[in-house]
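Exercise 3.2. Students should predict the tertiary structure of the chain below and write it as structure tokens, then compare their answer with the key that follows.

Predict this chain's 3D structure.
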Amino acid sequence: MAHNDPTSLEYIIAWSVYFLSGIGCSWVWWKLTSGMRNRGGRDVLRGIVLVLIFTPWYTGDDIRIYAPAFLILAMDLLLEGAESGLQGGVALMFSSFFVLLVLAVRLYLYRRPKPV
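Answer key:
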């Protein structure tokens, strides 16, 4: 099996380690932002970090091979320039939009007056 085969043991171990590390980093970020008084700002910062850590995107070579979207965006911008650097950026944009939409709906439901 090749190293870039999505069924290879190395690929599965790498994503497992990345996922567990992402959970650890998210937990640390959660604790760091828990002291913020502004709930809206705290939730947006938490959402941005979750999007950056946990949004995957396919690499340009093979649609079956995934990598973190922020790394795809950074590598595209560094190696290919701004014209083709939108591949990982589109995934991050849609993920960020979804997180902001969830936060807006949650804020709306939280502020809605409760029936008596």
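Discussion points: The chain has one domain: 9-108. The chain has a mean pLDDT of 86.
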